[in-house]
Every structure is written in C-alpha cells, then in structure tokens.
Amino acid sequence: MNRTSCTLLTGCLLFLAALPVSAEENSLLVPVTGSCLLNVAPEQQSAAVSACQQLARDGDSEAQFELGNYYYQGEFKGAQHTRDLSQALYWFEQASLKGHAQAQYFLGLMFYRGEGVPENDIQAFILLKMASVNGSDDAMDAADQVYEQMSQGQVEIASQVLGEIFRDYLMELQGLQQSTQPDLSSQPPFN
C-alpha cells in the first residue's frame, strides 16, 4: 500500500470512528442520520422527545421535521402516543420554512387531505412543488395527483404564486452572488 492510500484509509477510518452509531435490534452498527434519537424504548420516550424539542426550538430543521413526523404518526417504535396534528403542523411548518423537503411534502399532504387544516388543493400543490424542487421524489408524484384534481382557476393561482416564490428566490441568489464575488481587478492576469 502506498503512502497516499494509507493516508486516505486512515482518514476514512477516523471519519467513520467519529460517526454516532446505534446498535439497537441489529447486529450491525448503523450510522444515525437524524438529529433526534426518538427510536428508544417506551420508558425513555419522554426524555427523548424533550431533547428533540430543545434541538427543534434551537432551529435544527431535521429535529423540527422529526418532531412533526412523531406527532403526525401517533406511534413510534410500537409505543402509542397521542397523535397531535396541531403539533405536527407547527413543526412541519418550521422545517418547511428552512427548505426541508420532507417537511414540505408532509405539510402538502396535510393540506391535500385536510388533516389538522382545512383542505386546500392550491396550498397542497404549492408545497408539494416546493418539496419536489428541494429533492423529494414522492412530492413530484403527489403534486401531479393534486394537479389532476384542480380546476383551471386553481392551477393559475398556484402557478402565479410559485412564479413569485421562484422569482424572489432567484433575485435573492443573484444578490448573494454579487455580494460574494471576489474582486478580480486586483488579480494579476493569467500567463
């Protein structure tokens, strides 16, 4: 093994050693990908939810999504808890505002189904389209399903709102690019 391979291997091993892992119900160690550890024994559930709520209040969008999902499902690891759609809505909204695709997807489904909110196909379509732009494949299919049920007037309203959202986003990106571009006038020309 050459020196570069040894260095890369050592770096990879050090990186893997730093990952948090969970070995519950599995003989293989699996990296934990979420912010919260809600997948705990029922007697530890209250403490786990409290810790997750603190992360969510501190602005962690993944924790906000996980809490939303926890309240939306009404069951976690076989332990029943009260399904709370108002809490699910609140936490999905918080994560959605930060561009969390899965939170936008679930929020869109809530509006489509009228779960905890009045049924609203326009709002559902907008959220599902945003989720699909942010990387949710499931949201693309769901948005198509909602679209098929919308009237032409609803489609026009949703398209107008989406156009404004994306126009504002592009303008913000352009402003960021202009403010972060390096000053190349003081750089010597390439030879």
Q: What would you say about this model in short?
A:
It is built from eight helices and four strands; from the N terminus they run αββααββααααα. It is mainly alpha-helical.
Describe, in plain words, how this protein is organized in 3D:
The protein has 191 residues and is mainly alpha-helical. The protein folds into 2 domains: 34-98, no CATH class; 103-175, no CATH class. Helices cover 64% and strands 4% of the residues. The strands form 2 sheets. The chain has a two-stranded antiparallel ribbon. A two-stranded antiparallel ribbon has the order 3-4. A hairpin with a 2-residue loop joins strand 3 (75-76) and strand 4. Helix 6 runs parallel beside helix 8. The longest helix is centred in the C-terminal third of the chain and has 29 residues, at 152-180. The chain is flat. Mean pLDDT is 80; it is low at 1-32.
Tags for this entry?
191 residues, mainly alpha, two-stranded antiparallel ribbon, 64% helix, Sel1 repeat-containing protein, Sel1_AlgK, Sel1-like, signal, TPR-like_helical_dom_sf
The main pleated sheet reads as: 2 strands, antiparallel
Number of domains: 2
- Radius of gyration (Å): 22 Å
The best one-word shape is flat
Q: How many strands?
A: 4
- Main sheet strand line-up: 1-2
Average pLDDT rating: 80
Would you list the SSEs in sequence order as H and E?
HEEHHEEHHHHH
Report the end-to-end length measured between terminal Cα atoms. 39 Å
**Content of β-strand:** under 5%
Number of DSSP helical runs: 8
Low-confidence runs of at least 5 consecutive residues:
1-32
Q: Structural class from helices and strands?
A: mainly alpha
